[in-house]
Automatic annotation (TrEMBL):
<dbReference type="InterPro" id="IPR052564">
    <property type="entry name" value="N-acetyltrans/Recomb-assoc"/>
</dbReference>
<dbReference type="Pfam" id="PF13673">
    <property type="entry name" value="Acetyltransf_10"/>
</dbReference>
<dbReference type="InterPro" id="IPR016181">
    <property type="entry name" value="Acyl_CoA_acyltransferase"/>
</dbReference>
<keyword id="KW-0808">Transferase</keyword>
<dbReference type="InterPro" id="IPR000182">
    <property type="entry name" value="GNAT_dom"/>
</dbReference>
<protein>
    <submittedName>
        <fullName>GNAT family N-acetyltransferase</fullName>
        <ecNumber>2.3.1.-</ecNumber>
    </submittedName>
</protein>
<feature type="domain" description="N-acetyltransferase">
    <location>
        <begin position="12"/>
        <end position="142"/>
    </location>
</feature>
<keyword id="KW-0012">Acyltransferase</keyword>
<dbReference type="GO" id="GO:0016746">
    <property type="term" value="F:acyltransferase activity"/>
</dbReference>
Length: 144
């Protein structure tokens, strides 16, 4: 997961952020302690290729916060993110939350808008040293 995160940020997000920004963002994944915290506080789903190699992952917590969505640079535009989002939305439904919130990069904004997410606010979020622009987004669920 750590390598997939780093590779995705450095390559995919480089089209919307500067080299300095993606390097700073990618360095957020260097902390083993942070990964343990994320794994303990979120339910993760993964996508694997035919060789059983992780090519994407996403996560959801019990409050309906979608913490992560990353698809490997070599597996973009194959429907993997759509499948992962469907899985974590089902998890959110099982948790009984009324809406999902997430913080979305410039790169992912259009994808989430197409999936019914709306921008709540634009913000500058501190990665390690730098502040990067992203979007707080939300989708209301139709839990019955």
């Amino acid at each position: 997961m750590k390598d997939l995160f780093r590779t995705t940020v450095l390559n995919v997000n480089a089209r919307d952020y500067t080299e300095e920004e993606v390097k700073d963002w990618a360095s957020c994944g260097d902390s083993e302690t942070r990964w343990r915290e994320l794994l303990a506080g979120n339910q993760y789903v993964g996508a694997f290729n035919e060789c059983n190699v992780l090519v994407g992952f996403s996560s959801m917590n019990k409050d309906g916060y979608l913490n992560s969505m990353f698809v490997h640079k070599d597996f973009q535009h194959r429907g993997i993110a759509t499948q992962l989002l469907s899985e974590v939305e089902q998890i959110a439904g099982q948790y009984g939350v009324r809406y999902i919130t997430c913080e979305v990069s410039l790169t992912a904004r259009t994808f989430f808008e197409k999936k019914g997410y709306e921008i709540v606010k634009i913000q500058n979020y501190k990665a390690n040293r730098l502040e990067l622009t992203n979007f707080v987004m939300r989708k209301v669920l139709n839990n019955k």
